[in-house]
Design goal:
The complex is a heterodimer of chains A (123) and B (183).
Chain A lengths: L3 H18 L5 E6 L2 H6 L1 H14 L6 E6 L11 E5 L5 E3 L4 H13 L9 H5 L1
Parallel strand pairs in A: 1-2
Antiparallel strand pairs in A: 1-3, 3-4
Helix pairs in contact in A: 3-4
Chain B lengths: L3 H14 L4 E9 L2 E8 L6 H6 L16 H10 L5 E6 L9 E9 L11 H11 L4 E8 L2 E6 H8 L7 H17 L2
Parallel strand pairs in B: 1-5
Antiparallel strand pairs in B: 1-2, 2-4, 3-4, 5-6
Helix pairs in contact in B: 1-3, 1-4, 4-6
The chains are: A alpha+beta (123), B alpha+beta (183).
């Protein structure tokens, strides 16, 4: 059974990591989690990013956050990637598999997956 | 919504947006009736607003003039012959006891009952997105319960964020274990 003592151990282990996160200039992955996003399947997409970023040890560089309605509900689940000095990338109609690919190619490799961007869908 | 747990996620987000410091998500199964309560200590709504939130053409968002969160929850319970009620007290009315209490009942045997789905995932998503607000989750069934109180975790974790990955993993396993033992 999971115990609070176990949580205490996690806390002791995490203490140094928290300091690292402060003041980082990294990549921000933002998942739209309003009614439209949730209904279209944003929850598993968010989970895929949270898990993937951890699995690839990208937490010190990439943060995953949630936001409300971005205003393009017909393209949900929508994921925006912000990186200092670069243009925002908007991924649309996402699912956990596509999220995996974005983590692999974009977040790890620095290569935008243009097939899934809003430009590819509306073009 | 494919699962009620997604309606819960959606409506609980409103509580967080209302500035709640504690949002309670209470599920009680009794006989064939599921009662969902979402209780917050946020800013509350005036009577006029309470009346209008079930109208899809009312919303607080500014990107468009349609808000489907509460209407979808209302639909989900009413299609099982259940009902939705909202009580709310604004900060002006009561500086101490303000907040909103949403109650939805569902007849679980009704053919149009939407399965509850993955509530644990909903709780994890809420904690991930709002690590600085507290959530109390209690799911009661047959005299047993599954419970998560982030205030208890925060006490142990102190300044370690609740949405640290290791903590989230712990919460996930904590809920999973409790659900395995829920009769």
């Amino acid at each position: 059974m999971k115990s609070l003592a176990e949580l205490q151990a996690i806390k002791n282990r995490m203490k140094d990591k928290v300091v690292l996160r402060d003041g980082m200039e990294g990549v921000r992955v933002v998942v739209g989690m309003a009614t439209c996003g949730i209904a279209a399947g944003a929850r598993p997409v968010l989970n895929a990013f949270v898990e993937g970023v951890n699995k690839e040890n990208l937490e010190s560089k990439v943060s995953v956050t949630q936001t409300g309605c971005i205003g393009i509900c017909q393209y949900e689940p929508v994921v925006e990637v912000f990186e200092a000095g670069k243009e925002k990338v908007t991924y649309v109609k996402m699912n956990p598999e596509k999220a995996q690919e974005v983590i692999e190619k974009h977040l790890k490799g620095g290569q935008v997956v243009s097939d899934y961007t809003i430009g590819a869908v509306t073009a | 919504m494919k699962e009620l747990s997604l309606n819960i996620l959606d409506v609980a987000e409103n509580s967080v947006k209302a500035g709640a410091s504690l949002t309670q998500i209470l599920l009680t199964e009794e006989n064939d009736v599921l009662t969902l309560e979402i209780v917050d200590d946020g800013c509350g709504m005036s009577d006029d607003v309470v009346r209008s939130v079930t109208d899809p053409f009312y919303t607080t968002r500014t990107t468009r003039k349609v808000g489907m969160g509460i209407p979808l929850l209302k639909l989900a319970c009413e299609q099982t012959d259940g009902e939705l009620t909202i009580e709310s007290v604004t900060e002006e009315e009561d500086p101490q006891g303000h907040g909103t209490h949403v109650t939805a009942t569902f007849n679980m045997n009704h053919i149009d009952f939407t399965p509850l789905g993955d509530v644990s995932s909903t709780m994890l998503t809420l904690v991930q997105g709002h690590p600085d607000t507290d959530f109390l989750f209690v799911h009661k069934r047959n005299g047993s319960e599954v419970k998560l109180d982030t205030r208890e975790l925060r006490e142990v974790l102190e300044d370690v964020p609740l949405n640290s990955y290791d903590v989230m993993e712990w919460i996930g396993a904590y809920l999973r274990e409790q659900y395995e033992e829920l009769p």
